Amino acid sequence: MKKRLLSFLTIIAAFTFIVAGCSSSSTGSSTKDSEGGSKNEITLYTIQSTQPGFKEWLKKAEEKSGVKINWVAAPTDSDTRQQKISTILSSGDSSVDVLEINDEMATSFKNAGWLDPLQDTVLTDDILSQFPQGYMKDMLTSAKGDIIGVPGYSGYLGLWVDQKKLDEAGMKTIENKDDFVKFMKAATKDGQYGYGGSWEKTYVFNEIATFVNLFGGDYYDWTNEGSREAVKFMYDMANTWKVTPVDQLADKYEQMNQKFIDGKYGMVFMWGTGTDYREANRYGADQIHMINMPKFEKRAIFTDSWSYVLNSSSKNKEAAQKFLKYAASEEGGLNGWENFSRYPARADVASNEAVQSDIKEVYTQIQETNEINGRPMLPQTMEFINEMGTLFHNYIQDKITLDEFCTKAQEAVDKYK
Amino acid sequence: MYASKRYLIIAWLFVLPALLIRFFTTVYPIFETFRVSFFNVNLLRGINEFVGFQNYINIFQDPKMITSIKFTVIFVVGSMIGHIVLGVGLAVILNVKMAGQKVLRTIVLLPWAMPMVVIAIASKWAFNNDYGIVNDFIRWFNPGFNLDWLVHTETAWLAVIAVDLWKDVPFFAILVLAGLQFISTDMYEAAKIDGAGPIQTFFKITLPLISKNILILSIFFTMWRLTSFDIVYAMTSGGPGEDTALIAYRITTEAFTNLNTGYAASIAIVLFIVMAILSGLSMYGAKKVNY
Known about the structure:
Chain A: Residues 1-20 form the signal peptide. The complex is a heterodimer of chains A (417) and B (291). A five-stranded mixed beta sheet of chain A has the order 2-1-3-11-4. In chain A, strands 7-8-6-9 form a four-stranded mixed beta sheet. In chain A, strands 5-10-12 form a three-stranded mixed beta sheet. In chain A, 50% of the residues lie in helices and 13% in strands. Chain A is an alpha/beta fold. Chain A folds into two domains: 39-153 and 305-345, Periplasmic binding protein-like II (D-Maltodextrin-Binding Protein, domain 2), CATH 3.40.190; 156-303 and 374-416, D-Maltodextrin-Binding Protein, domain 2 (3-Layer(aba) Sandwich). Chain B has twelve helices and two strands, in the order αββααααααααααα. In chain B, a hairpin with a 4-residue loop joins strand 1 and strand 2. Chain B is globular. Classes of the chains: A alpha/beta (417), B mainly alpha (291). The interface between A and B is large, with 42 and 35 residues.
């Protein structure tokens, strides 16, 4: 009898533990739900948490927005980050309220219905007019006309040169295509190269698109002579003139920057305001610095940003909107500049006296002289980028001809458009 | 009779929670994956339509998948040959009685204890032409040596297989070593008296007696190779081009980057079937080997 009772009790206990285990989390989340609507706190999925100024930024953002900000660090690897964010948004996960996403993700997600529109609540006309209009339209506006993100900064994929090498080549600046080629050839010696790139298949997209842009081509039209000329130019750099190493097909930005810092390259195209070079004591007018884009067929540059977006599944939308209003405000832009050296996206904030740096000079010159575009992206962004990168690798390694590259690139455009 | 039935019910009740967990974490996902594999699900485009066997047909028409299948075969075969040859060799060395044997066995296992992602990220640098330890080592003997391993298809294959071997051969060897230690020393002594040399002893005694052990280990190690994706995810991102994209990596990319869930599910089902057939054949083979 005792044994039977003991068995019975054990079974009940086992089931109770299991049921308790299953239900405790849902009770927790339902409690959270009931408080959720009025909770004045958000969870931010951020790429900035490893920055030295993050704590200071966070403190100021909490003070000024009046919202408590919990944060989750996004993975540093781009593939992993994209996969995680895709999973969060597509599964309706409400554990994150505001996320930072790049242009690739914005293009992919803006029509998927996973992000809340912000034009009525955050980006009112007076604020919106201060952001770069072309960029807002191309990257952050959905097919329905909803604006889904607040740009965290304005960046350019600019040309960075090693001034010592430029001096050694007896050149003052790189004004046009001839200068560009002349410098590449002059700086290529003793195992060093005139040009360095990050040609890993998902990264090389930036450089292909930049050269297509400079040659006056169209990334979506591979019958365009400018587009063909651009990839042929890149092929010649690696294989004909040998002014850039084929080895960089495996390099992402971390490898490219390390080589640039170590003096292996004369110039590179790179985003940002030179934080890596500063940290390596290689930044400066006599060392590594950004210059205006050279004029090939035209003078053109890409702009980018990481934008704050509001998860449609968020349970804390009011608080999230408060934070987003702050991010879109003058104070928000300056906070990003002061703590992350991120150049403010708003024109009025960028012209603020507090934003003082030599970068501002170059940025102003770029804004005055260049055609500025967002990068060419299609809804299936990463798939398209991967496919183009793979084709480029095959072309550079002589597995396919230029004609085959262009034909297949056009097929990819048609497939993903 | 009544009591035994009652105990049986009680036993089932105890097992039931585990069965339920198993059902929801294994059986249900398999059926759901199977179901989804017949749909064209693209989360980004909001498409969810029944397409029958189209996803399965696409697998064998997709050049990226064909490249993945090709490299997966090369990776699994190459890596498994390496595991068996190097693993058995290492196990034999570790079985030799010598000073510091225990320390040596522990050191040998260190690479296995490290996470694959960490090893793969380090390997990306290790195989770099300018900064890599691999070329530094080769340059001791051949000062003019220059090669960026991860840029060229064949060398990238070699590098991936080499890293996989570096990490997992020690574990394979330790498991083979366990088999070696069951072989009675009497047999070796008898062979020695009969005039057998070390090579003859190895092929006539050692190898036959551990062959079943090796075969069973090979089943598991082959399955792990078939499902591994972290090594190329962190080391090559499937490049150059798509040349090192293992099937499991392709599934991950289709499912989580491209959000082509239906297509990813169909690849997963094909891989599942291949693995089931391979393990069935191996188990059958293992039964046949009997020393």
